[in-house]
Amino acid sequence: xxxxxxxxxxxxxxxxxxxxxxxxxxxxxxxxxxxxxxxxxxxxxxxxxxxxxxxxxxxxxxxxxxxxxxxxxxxxxxxxxxxxxxxxxxxxxxxxxxxxxxxxxxxxxxxxxxxxxxxxxxxxxxxxxxxxxxxxxxxxxxxxxxxxxxxxxxxxxxxxxxxxxxxxxxxxxxxxxxxxxxxxxxxxxxxxxxxxxxxxxxxxxxxxxxxxxxxxxxxxxxxxxxxxxxxxxxxxxxxxxxxxxxxxxxxxxxxxxxxxxxxxxxxxxxxxxxxxxxxxxxxxxxxxxxxxxxxxxxxxxxxxxxxxxxxxxxxxxxxxxxxxxxxxxxxxxxxxxxxxxxxxxxxxxxxxxxxxxxxxxxxxxxxxxxxxxxxxxxxxxxxxxxxxxxxxxxxxxxxxxxxxxxxxxxxxxxxxxxxxxxxxxxxxxxxxxxxxxxxxxxxxxxxxxxxxxxxxxxxxxxxxxxxxxxxxxxxxxxxxxxxxxxxxxxxxxxxxxxxxxxxxxxxxxxxxxxxxxxxxxxxxxxxxxxxxxxxxxxxxxxxx
Length: 544
Known about the structure:
The chain is 22% helix and 31% strand. By secondary structure, the chain is α+β, with helices and mostly antiparallel strands. This is CocE/NonD family hydrolase.
């Protein structure tokens, strides 16, 4: 019995002794060797097999999932993708060579110990690799257990709202470079932690951006250069878009995400597409940042329940289960999003936010954004241990951040579903960002972020433009399930930056990778009857 099994409360009814075969060499379809570790329960004849495909190495002593699965009676094949951890070929970021899966499946079907029942499992890149696997028909595939990984990479991770996700991009570059340069040694990774934050901050401030990878790692990273050299609409990203594979996913799919995971919107879109394709889908969303849910009791228990049911021929759990932050409870829902009433909370002069319509005499709120001193951000959906809720008061005190806040709530307010903001704005230049962040303010004044969103605009953006230069800006924030307590306040932040989570908009319209110039801008946010800027929250039946 592993220590993790005890901590997570997932002891199997029958605990099987685990045997391990290391450095199993699997040929890709083009002959490139892909090493794997094979875990199997002693004395069990041709049990179902769980496949994990990873760029992050094998045999990490902290990764106990293969042993947990093998103790439950499953085989586990933990494979390295090409260019990683002893595998041949070249690693190419989030572009996965199809020869890897083609060769692995052919090899697997030829093994006498393979019983013909296949499951896949994994978080983040390991989940994304499952979507790539569905590029071909796999009749043996019974269930995919996917945590924190959407089918499309560019929209959810790299260019949300059209803004380059600089902090997350560089954070992943640093993570991978530390693993690769340290030969996947856990000790070397831990030793690199103290200096990691300083290096990442320095790289995030580098201009031109094409030099950021060198500032971070000391060398050029080819796939980072491609990321910053290809805008969100470029054909380059099609190689990392697996949404067309939905019809070849297995009959059962378990999706697990977190409210503070940058991949969550993409996973929710996948959830809808899988249901439309006739799949049985379980959706679990917890109060976690990226990759953290699997190692919780709720996350592991739910995933194992789905795996056991699908591979043992029983009805797999389906439906939606979410954690309601603020109330600290789990809630089962009939669907996502649940029935709700999109309700506007209007912005007013003096930083007020309420349900009343705007005052005809209301003048605009103003701020100035300077990319040379970009508006920072804390917490939220970041590739770091500091993701999640954080105190935003220091940021809200800056002159380049507007806040609009309700009076203390007279009663509790619960919101579950999509969140959006509509701003009526006027900027001094056409190349601008708008960032909206929803927070809850405690009676003592602590302002904690719940969700946010960004949109990047230029002269070609498809938005409404009035003759007086006022534009209508719609911002989709991350979805949420949150319970605002009585006496607390709802707050909306409005700014033009959230650095380094979203790379600063230089304001010049020049290419992202090479620009050195930075151009400041002034902004007006209107909140009169003709320009009713508002936050739209999904009120649930619990509010009635």
